[in-house]
């Protein structure tokens, strides 16, 4: 058997094994699939600086990129196993076994693992080992036989693709569950929202560590509220729908945002107010933080004092008039205005536990991020775009500014090294949303820089000093360059 045929056999066997493992996971627990489990383990082990680089450079493509890299590594190992295994049969057995054990170990390392999560990886590895052994069983010679081996490999790869396609079809259940939800009207609809203020659901940013969107059966889902409380509570989705709901426009910010970055958006959220719910359960003395847990294992901690200070923290079930999109936390997420998402907005919520800071460090805090995460005063130039080429004359410079829970008092714009000039602020519905601003600039020919800064209602001016997002959010004045002709 020629070396290339061994490579083809290794790739075909691995492709079929991985596809069957992922398909098996799709009908049990998608997070138990080997690619997803290994990807999650890689994310957990990745240094913060590397994570920030990935978010900055790849944006929402970071997850497909990671899965692609994992797939290439598996393919390379499979090719080597097939090439070596044609001469050393022990390798043909050991290679798939090691890959299966790696997938099973990664599945068991996940925060929300179940013992049966090892089954997909081990089953896929066993199948890959058997198939590879059969493909390498004979030692033919001649081009015609090698071609037959190649066709066998191609057939197995085709079968793998079919299995992966079936896995994609199996993922339609959560979408159908979401479509069946009919949201009730809010008991407290909140303030009117000016046109153009909201971000559409399809354009709303997504930054999280979940490599696959959790698939949640509404009939099985419930939320457990426990810990340092007078009594424990467990509620279903139907229970939440029956409670008095509030609807509020709230701007959300990702702490990974660089100055001027895109990871923020404003939506109208519908949900159950959290503070009255917690108070009704009797918060015990000494309770300092609420640890929210996701069905896929993420933990997010929010200070109890923050949730009780009058802001509209909620268990959100709706976004811009629709049930939560799958990728934004369906069926229920926690939402805390004025706090970066990593410290107040847990998606795919499964439980809330009242505890102390000493007793538990949530996921991001254990990796060095700040436990207290109020959103910093900031502003951004959205128009014109950086490096735009403009015509001389009156140019409208526009953007947004934010200081959730404090509100924006003023926004100023500076052209080149000139004086700061006040911008016009457009109406905003509350201190929990960003403020749109605009400034009329009489542009003259040549290269120019445009800078913006905001002042919140406490009188604090947006920090000029540049700081990276880690550990508590970026600072600095957003400045862009344009050319006027």
Automatic annotation (TrEMBL):
The keyword Translocase does not apply. The keyword Coiled coil does not apply. Residues 1-21 form the signal peptide. Residues 211-359 form the Oxidoreductase molybdopterin-binding domain. InterPro entries: Ig_E-set, OxRdtase_Mopterin-bd_dom, OxRdtase_Mopterin-bd_sf. Keywords: Membrane, Signal, Transmembrane, Transmembrane helix. This is Molybdopterin-dependent oxidoreductase. It comes from Paractinoplanes pyxinae.
């Amino acid at each position: 058997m020629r070396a290339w045929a061994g490579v083809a056999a290794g790739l075909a066997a691995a492709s079929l094994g991985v596809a069957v493992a992922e398909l098996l996971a799709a009908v049990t627990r998608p997070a138990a699939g080997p690619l997803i489990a290994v990807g999650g383990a890689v994310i957990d082990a990745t240094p913060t600086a590397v994570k920030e680089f990935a978010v900055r450079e790849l944006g929402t493509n970071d997850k497909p990129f990671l899965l692609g890299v994992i797939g290439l590594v598996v393919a390379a190992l499979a090719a080597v196993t097939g090439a070596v295994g044609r001469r050393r049969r022990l390798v043909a057995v050991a290679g798939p076994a090691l890959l299966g054990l790696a997938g099973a170990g990664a599945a068991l390392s996940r925060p929300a693992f179940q013992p049966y999560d090892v089954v997909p990886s081990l089953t896929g590895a066993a199948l890959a080992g058997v198939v590879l052994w059969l493909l390498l069983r004979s030692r033919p010679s001649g081009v015609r036989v090698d071609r037959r081996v190649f066709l066998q490999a191609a057939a197995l790869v085709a079968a793998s693709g079919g299995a992966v396609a079936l896995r994609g079809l199996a993922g339609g259940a959560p979408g159908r569950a979401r479509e069946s939800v009919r949201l009730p009207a809010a008991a407290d609809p909140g303030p009117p929202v000016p046109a153009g203020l909201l971000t559409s659901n399809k354009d709303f940013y997504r930054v999280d560590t979940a490599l696959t969107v959790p698939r949640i059966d509404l009939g099985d889902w419930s939320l457990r509220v426990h810990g340092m409380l007078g009594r424990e509570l467990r509620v279903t989705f139907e229970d939440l729908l029956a409670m008095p709901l509030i609807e509020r426009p709230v701007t959300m910010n990702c702490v990974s945002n660089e100055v001027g970055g895109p990871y923020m958006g404003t939506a109208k959220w519908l949900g159950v107010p959290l503070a009255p719910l917690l108070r009704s359960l009797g918060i015990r003395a000494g309770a300092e933080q609420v640890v929210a847990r996701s069905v896929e294992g993420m933990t997010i901690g929010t200070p109890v004092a923050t949730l009780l200070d009058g802001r509209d923290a909620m268990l959100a079930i709706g976004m811009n008039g629709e049930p939560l999109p799958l990728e934004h936390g369906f069926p229920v997420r926690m939402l805390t205005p004025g706090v970066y998402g990593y410290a107040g907005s847990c998606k795919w919520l499964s439980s809330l536990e009242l505890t102390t800071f000493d007793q538990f460090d949530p996921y991001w805090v254990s990796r060095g991020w700040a436990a207290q995460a109020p959103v910093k005063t900031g502003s951004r130039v959205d128009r014109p775009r950086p490096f735009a080429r403009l015509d001389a004359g009156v140019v409208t410079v526009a953007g947004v500014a934010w200081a959730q829970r404090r509100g924006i008092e003023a926004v100023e714009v500076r052209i080149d090294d000139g004086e700061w000039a006040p911008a016009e602020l457009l109406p905003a519905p509350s201190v929990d949303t960003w403020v749109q601003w605009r400034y009329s600039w009489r542009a003259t020919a040549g290269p120019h820089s445009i800078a913006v800064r905001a002042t919140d209602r406490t009188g604090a001016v947006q920090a000029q000093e540049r700081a990276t997002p880690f550990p508590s959010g970026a600072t600095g004045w957003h400045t862009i360059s344009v050319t006027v002709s």
